[in-house]
Amino acid sequence: MWSRINCIACIACFAVCVSPAVARDIYVNNLTGDDRNDGGAPVMVGVYGGPHRTLTRALRAARKGDRIIVANTGQAYSESITLQGGRHSGYPDAPFEVIGNGAVLDGTEPLLPDAWTYVDGGVFRYRVPRSTGHLLYLDGKPARQRAVHSVDELGTLQPLEWCRLEQFVYFCVEPGRLPQTYAARFTALPVGITLYEVQHVVVRDLVVQGYQLDGINAHDGVRGARLVGLNCRGNGRSGISVGGASRVQIDACLVGNNGAAQVRTEGYCHAELISCDLLDNTAPRIVQDGGRVDEVQ
After folding, report:
1. Do both 172 and 216 map to the same domain?
2. Are the C-beta atoms of 80 and 109 separated by less than 8 Å?
3. DSSP letters of 59-91?
4. Alpha carbon distance 279, 232 (integer Å)
5. What's this model's pTM, rounded to 2 decimal places?
């Protein structure tokens, strides 16, 4: 009897030891939050109880199986973040989650007013500060891009359209306006969200825009990841990139207005697209340099 009781106790103890720890909700608010807070509540509670201000700080505080809940404040989060390793992974029945609530993750920076020089008619230009992945934004959204192959074709630009030739971006203003009167920005940060060697991760309900390379990049070693309800737009290379030996499910995402591809794959990855809307307005829907892509409507 004694040995049987002890055996049952040992089994119970083992079950407790291997069960997932209780997941926490970590809150982020870029208006009312403070990175000195504990992140444990959506509003201020006491001196340091309340949301973090940045996703970067929330990820530093996170551990396996946690949920990061992002407040949609109407103001974009200007960050580039990485989920990496065990602390940003989850369990099969309790994934690590980033829940965006429709918030915008934005990689653009403002253009300086004196960056513009006059060309002709309504066309102005500025020198591209970086060599790749440069896109123009107006009022928080990608501006209309026109394919122009030489300076002789600049007259085809219509108001609010832009093009890139060599090291310059050319922009056509509306009659009676100057480029300084627009809220013009350019893609600056490299990647919105990088996933690297993580398992059982869900990223949902975010707008990811304005990055030089990719909105989302599942770089390598990603298993059991789901991207749900994302809008990945206006990134210099692709909206979503899956590479290495990663396995990613892309579910109900809208991807468009990206520079080289809406979705790209490379290496030995596997991307499963379920009920996604991939626009071919600026680049091919899917570009593959290796990898497997399954589309499910």
Report:
1. no
2. no
3. HHH--TT-EEEE---SS-B---EEEESGGG--B
4. 11
5. 0.87
Compute the distance between CA of residue 278 and CA of residue 253 in angstroms, rounded to an integer: 8
pLDDT, tens digit, for every residue of 72-89? 999 999 999 999 999 999
pLDDT digits (tens, 9 = 90+) for 239-270: 999 999 999 999 999 999 998 999 999 999 99
The string of pLDDT tens digits covering residues 46-68 is 888 999 999 999 999 999 999 99
**Domain interval for residue 168:** 120-185
In 3D space, the residue among 71, 55, 113, 65 whose CA is nearest the CA of residue 88 turns out to be 65
Same domain, 126 and 272: no
Q: Are residues 147 and 30 in the same domain?
A: no
Of 185, 206, 233, the last residue of a domain is 185
Task: Give the count of domains, the chain.
Answer: 2
| DSSP SS3 for 112 | coil
Examine the fold and report which residue of 170, 185, 200 is the final residue of a domain before the chain moves on. 185
Task: State whether 87 and 149 are in the same domain.
Answer: no
Q: Which residues of 38-167 form beta strands (DSSP E)?
A: 67-70, 81-84, 96-106, 108-110, 117-120, 123-127, 136-138, 141-142, 144-145, 161-165
